[in-house]
């Protein structure tokens, strides 16, 4: 059985978008790495917020995009290329906050969308904790299946690094 700290935030994010993708990622099956949308995401991540002195936080199963100070407050940020999947991005960032809070570490959190010049502040509440714990249990159940769920066609499939895996002939 998988422990909650072992549930990686990107699994949670993927689970909220596509359960099949979450299963594949959690079982070490990589999508096509030369996907143009993955490349775009990497570029946005590398080029954005260079004016800030920042660092990445890396813990087992956790890789927070950016840590910086804003008006004497430490901020963890999740960089996204657009606000299309804002609910899922918020849950991913809240999961980071949840993990850090369990370790006794408190931060302000923001979703950063450089192309849209947006900063969306995110705060972990008791309601969010309950929601996260529910999703964690659902992800645990999913990744313990011996086979991935059958693919379900979505608009995001055309941009997904797993498109050929799911829909290739």
TrEMBL record:
Record-annotated DUF83 domain positions: 13-167
Pfam families reported in the protein's UniProt record: Cas_Cas4 (PF01930)
Keywords assigned by UniProt, alphabetized: Antiviral defense, Exonuclease, Hydrolase, Iron, Iron-sulfur, Manganese, Metal-binding, Nuclease
Record GO biological process: defense response to virus
Enzyme Commission designation: 3.1.12.1
Named cofactor requirement(s): iron-sulfur cluster; Mg(2+); Mn(2+)
Cofactor note: Mg(2+) or Mn(2+) required for ssDNA cleavage activity.
Source organism, top-level taxon: Bacteria
Keyword Transmembrane helix: no
An annotated Gene Ontology molecular function: exonuclease activity
Function: CRISPR (clustered regularly interspaced short palindromic repeat) is an adaptive immune system that provides protection against mobile genetic elements (viruses, transposable elements and conjugative plasmids). CRISPR clusters contain sequences complementary to antecedent mobile elements and target invading nucleic acids. CRISPR clusters are transcribed and processed into CRISPR RNA (crRNA).
Family: Belongs to the CRISPR-associated exonuclease Cas4 family.
Protein name: CRISPR-associated exonuclease Cas4
Gene designation: cas4
